Amino acid sequence: MIDENVSEGLIGQAFKVIFKEFERYIKIMKMFKGIDWNIYVKMRNKERKAGDAKKDYDDENLLDEDEEPAKEEEKKEEEKKDDE
Fold this sequence. Notes:
The chain is mostly helical.
């Protein structure tokens, strides 16, 4: 059996929290002046022409990618100890 009054109360509380977060986000966004895209594009093109802009990101591992091989090695070491 479902208590409709309790469910409605919980949904009402959830919406109150959600809209409060929306209001907070809108307030933050109104304080943000934004980006002057003309200046950004000029500076970015200048970096590219000078060769200062990094173009390749494929060689860099993400943090979680660096951690996974270490965990696998630990598991293999534990298996070896168990086998002995």
